[in-house]
Amino acid sequence: MTIQSAELLVTNGTVLTLNDRDERIENGAVAITGEEIVALGRADGFSDWQVGRTLDAGGGIIMPGLINTHTHAAMTCFRGLADDLHLMTWLNDHIFPAEAKLDREKVCAGALLACAEMILSGTTCFCDMYLFEEAVAEAAKHAGMRAVVGEVLYDFPSPNYGPVEQGFAYTEALISRWQADPLITIAVEPHSPYLCAPDLLCRAADLARRYEVPLVIHLSETENEVRQMVEKYGHSPVAHLAELDVLCANLLACHCVHLDDHDITLLRQFDVKVSHNPESNMKLASGIAPVPQLLDAGICVGLGTDGCSSNNDLDLFGEMDMAAKLHKVATADPTVMDARTMLRMCTIEGARALGLGKITGSLEPGKRADLIVIDTDKPHLTPMYRPESHLVYAARGSDVTASVINGRVVMADRSLMTIDVEKAMRAVRRITAEIRG
Ligand SMILES: CSC[C@H]1O[C@@H](n2cnc3c(O)ncnc32)[C@H](O)[C@@H]1O
Ligand SMILES: [Zn+2]
Fold first, then answer.
1. For the whole prediction, is pTM greater than 0.95?
2. Hey, what domains does the chain have and what are their CATH numbers?
């Protein structure tokens, strides 16, 4: 008889696989070796395994880590700086002037704090658009997080690279530097059709196609944006991208709040993925994305927080709860966006949206070991008829006790292994003085 072995066994919990069959394993365990899940099943099935380290889930829930499909991680530096404003006032009068004061070190500090907040609230993977993204990639790598990162490209000079020509060069350098990294994927990220001329959009799409990397953009976020685009180009933002041949399966379109039926047909036709950011859309009063319609059309939708200056946190548990309830009230239909749909949106569908569906987003042998443990021994999680219900409607990020990313334990007993959280908070507090000054 061969002795089976695992370097790490996460055991004694209800395992939610979020795989195609949505399996739930009571008294379950997940065996990990190196970066990968090697087996999962009932915990007693592993009693004769040789195990290096055991992580006891204490009777809680073991599930795939959450995936945040749209962040501007370093915007932790601007949390609470400017609230209660329209998007364009918020951006032009407050955020862009503050961002002009950023540099590589500040972005690195802001992103590291974001990683601490994300790991502590159950996120294992995020997709980021910002300035000085090399620093974001380094922060994510330091934190041990999986990330898709891309330098923002737009028509005006960037505080990082200057004119956009150099933005393309910077993006290509990022792609070649991080090509073989197990955690970091580089994306091409034009900001939006309203800040990017047609030529920039076409070049960005060509670059993403050439390197087979994700293409990420803000799209149809506000009514004003749609009006402007129709006046300027005679098309909606989605139809504008279709005209330019930018719509494709590796495009992640963030927000997609103001869509007409033709836009939805186009998104489906080109298999475009959508990132839904309900809290940011609510806070900036941008509107309500037609997510139930997108799902009915068969479009892949992931969940995102957007930057935490328009949210104002990075807790995806809160985001799932908000999204589920927002769409119920918007459609006057309590059956839409049920708990299962929300959990899938935040895990496997998020992974698919980022082009990572084959490696993460569900617990299956052969996939990377990206998982979290939730402590359910809490008054607000008692009793528990259905774990899926609690995860969406009752749990908070602070209920997450452990996190494993790419096979590495990055948090246990709510202690971060990779980040000195006190130091990370101090660094960002120091930056706020400069931002204010
Ligand atoms: C420089 S990277 C990204 C750029 O986008 C700004 N931003 C943050 N949130 C939003 C949003 O909801 N819509 C459009 N632009 C947004 C961010 O401040 C950065 O300047
Ligand atoms: Zn955004």
1. yes
2. 5-64+369-416 (2.30.40.10), 66-353 (3.20.20.140)
